[in-house]
Amino acid sequence: MPSVLSYPGVYIEEIPSGVRTITGVATSITAFIGRALRGEVDRAIRVQSFAEYSRLFGGLSRSSTMSYAVSHFFQHGGRDALIVRVFNGDADTDTATITLATTSGNLVLEAASPGTWGNRLRARVDHLTRDTSDTLLFNLTVEELDRAGGTTVVASEPFRNVSVNTGSARFVDTVLKAQSALVRVRTSAPADESPVDGTANATTTATDGGAITDTQIAGDRDARTGLYALEAADLFNLLCIPPPSFDADLVAATWATAAAYCQERRAMLIIDAPAAWTANASTAIATAEAGVNGLRATIGNDDAINAAAYFPRLRMPDPLSENRLADFAPCGAVAGIIARTDGQRGVWKAPAGLAASFSGVQGFTYTMTDAQNGVLNPVGLNCLRSFPVTGHLLWGARTLAGADALASEWKYLPVRRLALYIEESLFRGTQWVVFEPNDSPLWAQIRLNIGAFMQDLFRQGAFQGSSPRDAYFVKCDAETTTQNDIDRGVVNILVGFAPLKPAEFVVIKIQQMAGQIEA
């Protein structure tokens, strides 16, 4: 805004450059949905290492396929994960409680989340406070005992000088809700009685609930449970839903629901091939071919572009079974390889090939030949292969819509993921445009900022073409935005790019040279 010229002299004005840098979003934040030993239910919580997952969700468990998938994710190069714990049980009865007696009532604490882990909690009360004359003040220490014998304290939370007075800044209900990772207050103490000194153990009736089913995983959108707990997450790029248990697989309808949600959120769904596809080795390839076609039919071609299926399953040592080999769904390891590839090469690089090797994998539940791979690749099923010397590799990079017969423009996984990356980055990076005057100066700023973003991708090697003109274009002018659009408050931006497609088939032609006799 120009200065008000009120006196003779020199006036300085700062003029905006119009440059608003568009920052690319993350590309490999992976969401996991499944059962866990502990942790908040139906809430997306971010973790950045398996140690952090173990602290918040209880570590590996034979009842939790998700725990293994998360472990494989970080083992193979993953860095950021969103964990959604689902629970099949009664949250009230399956949450342990600790009763601290007062003179005429009780202060009842409850574990921060359901599960048998809460049965190992105990609480200690004393009145050695800063003001011993204040009978409403007390010290509370909550402890978690070890899983083995229940005698070693593995976590302790001391809360000093808390009060049962609702008007106090140290009101115990508020303090525990804000600061404790172990307990909450279920029933408040009488406002004029603090708990008596002593130690109280938790009830031992809490359970880990039953095996989860597709119902808990699919969840309810209005209640934001299961899959829809991710509504509260700002961004995720990959979605892994490990099998509900080691003896059961997700039904196709749940995959369809998840694929449709990924389409909304600009994310990719990683689908695990059912264990039943390799139950009979003699018919495994035919079963997998029919299975992936049936899965695609259920999901639908429109949503299949945001999904990728992997076959077969991994054979890896199980740390909870004396490192004996067990079969695991590949989604966590695949997501880790994708994250690793993104970090090393970029989202436009196909997460497959010699660099896409598995770590700690001893084999697969089915070992296929090149000819068998040639049956599954044309129907859009990504295969996991074992090769001499190079080892166990991820050997496919197609979306579920990548069947040759569909001729989809989103046939290849890196092409689809690059498009999603550009879409999400531009969506977030152009929010400033809303309510700006819709005219030539705005259009020029849009072209400048989006063009700079696309140019940076071109310089990194994300597009085909030897020049920017061949690689991408950004159009926003009177041709894309007519007067009728302006009257309706609409500005139209057209962005195009020439994607790099993976060299899926390398053809080497060899010709024998005929000998030439010179005269």
TrEMBL record:
InterPro entries xrefs: Tail_sheath_C, Tail_sheath_structural
Domain Tail sheath protein C-terminal, first and last residues per copy: 408-511
Gene3D superfamilies, A to Z: 3.40.50.11780
Composition-biased stretches (Low complexity): 197-208
One Pfam family named in its UniProt record: Phage_sheath_1C
Region named Disordered: 188-208
Domain of life (superkingdom): Bacteria
Family under the similarity heading: Belongs to the myoviridae tail sheath protein family.
Protein name: Phage tail protein
Organism, as annotated: Thauera humireducens
Organism placement in taxonomy: Bacteria, Pseudomonadati, Pseudomonadota, Betaproteobacteria, Rhodocyclales
